[in-house]
Amino acid sequence: MKKALLLLSALMLTAALTACGSDKTAIKDDNPAQAKVEETTAPAAETAKAEEPAAEPVVEKAKEEAPAPDDIWTYYDNATWSDDFNGVKSSIEKVVVTDQAPKDYDESNLTASAVGIKFKIENTTDKLWTTYPDQAELITSTGEQLQADLFVSDDLGGEIEEGVIKEGNVIWFLERGHASDVKWVKVKWYVTEGDGFSMDAKREEYSVKLELK
User: Fold this and answer.
1) Residue 17: what are its φ and ψ, rounded to 5°?
2) Which residues contact 84 (CB under 8 A, 6 or more apart)?
3) What is the DSSP string of 49-115?
4) Model-level pTM?
5) CA-based torsion, 10, 190, 122, 73: positive or negative
6) Burial of 63 (0-12, 13-18, 19+ CB in 10 A)
7) How far is CA 50 from CA 44, 53, 57, 58, 59, in A?
8) DSSP string over 141-170
9) Is the Cβ–Cβ distance between 165 and 201 less than 8 Å?
10) Residue 45 host element (H or E)
11) What is the spatial distance between Cα 88 and Cα 12, in angstroms, rounded to a whole number?
12) How far, CA to CA in Å, does 40 sit from each of 37, 46, 47, 50, 152?
């Protein structure tokens, strides 16, 4: 029964972190994916209307999106990094921190500290590669060495086939101290050719240090 409750709480937190921007724990995405809309043949009546002279378009100035008032995250959008290893493009697009994360997966107790990193991995080759950014190790300036929380992180690990793009957030919960005190983080993971079991495969070990303050 205890295990079932823990799993249910974990699933609830995962949903909270990946839900719409109005949720307190959601990490805002500045570049959301756009839905693909297929073109269809318009009826004759609509075609006739389309041939009429179009009205002068109204151009509005783009407005800067203000952060949601209940957003718990502090964003470090300049904490970025990228690399291309034999056609596998890996990038870190932002780092976020909070001292108001759900403690022990309890959304009514927002007292835990956490660090999040948004990854993007793209295989531009015709070969199979393997990488596990969602199992990356995090080292902080406050003296912590942590493993990613797989329950609340996006599923980015494993084999990545040709032409595939994987992107999402990886979360680490701090064991002591406050996330607001973290001045830099170092994240470690790897990319390897093939299924990851060959000893002779091409492999790149990443150890990326990102300054936050």
Assistant:
1) -75, -25
2) 90
3) HHHSPPPPPPP-PPPPPPPPTT--PEEETT--EEEEETTEEEEEEEEEEEEEEPBTTBTT---EEEE
4) 0.71
5) positive
6) exposed
7) 10, 8, 14, 18, 20
8) TTS-EEE--TTTS----EEE-TT-EEEEEE
9) no
10) helix 44-51
11) 33
12) 9, 12, 12, 14, 40
Both structure tokens of 105: 């997966």
Cα–Cα distance, 48 to 51 (Å, whole number)? 5
The residue to which tokens 């718990």 are assigned: 72
Q: What's the token pair of residue 101? A: 């994360």
What is the rounded distance in angstroms from the CA atom of residue 154 to the CA atom of residue 106?
Answer: 19
Cα separation, 187 vs 133, in Å, equals 9
Q: In this predicted structure, what is the pLDDT of residue 196?
A: 86
Which positions of the chain have pLDDT values less than 70? 1-26, 31-69
CA dist 138 and 133 (Å) reads 11
Number of Cβ within a 10 Å radius of residue 199: 5
What is the longest distance spanned by two Cα atoms in the chain? Answer: 69
Give the type of residue at 19. A
Which residue do the tokens 């793209």 mark?
122
- Distance separating alpha carbons of residues 129 and 160, to the nearest angstrom: 5
Give the contacts of 190 (CB within 8 A, at least 6 positions apart).
Answer: 131, 132, 203, 204, 205, 206
Instruction: Give the amino acid at 54.
Output: A
- In the block, tokens 């495969």 appear at 201
- Alpha carbons 113 and 181: distance in angstroms, whole number: 10
